[in-house]
Amino acid sequence: MLVGNLTLNDQAIEERFVRASGPGGQNVNKVATAVQLRLNLSESGLPLDVRQRLERLAGSRLTQEGVLIIDAQRFRTLEQNREDARNRLTELVERAAKPPRKRRPTRPTLASRQRRLDKKRHTAEKKQLRRRVNS
Asked: Whole-model pTM?
């Protein structure tokens, strides 16, 4: 499976079809239309840095064994849910493929430092006026 400029190993992807909850009427009780897409990250063929970012992005969808699970039951048909699950996987891998931008350290401007000091001075004066007056 091709995701952006990365290739996912098709053997690492497993699809399971289970009964869905939600809309579908009587059909929902008889037909397995929900899709549970499972991607084994260790066998996925993704570069290490992308895999690490994907693990971070996956959050609770990642099992202890390193398997990413995506549940799709938005639609009434199996084909639409299958497409939805694959699209969500593609989107997740594409987000992980983009390396994070490096943070450039910046310094506060002279004007912002001056505003901060003025505000501190104003607050100090306000508090000083609230003190008890000595006679």
From this structure: 0.68
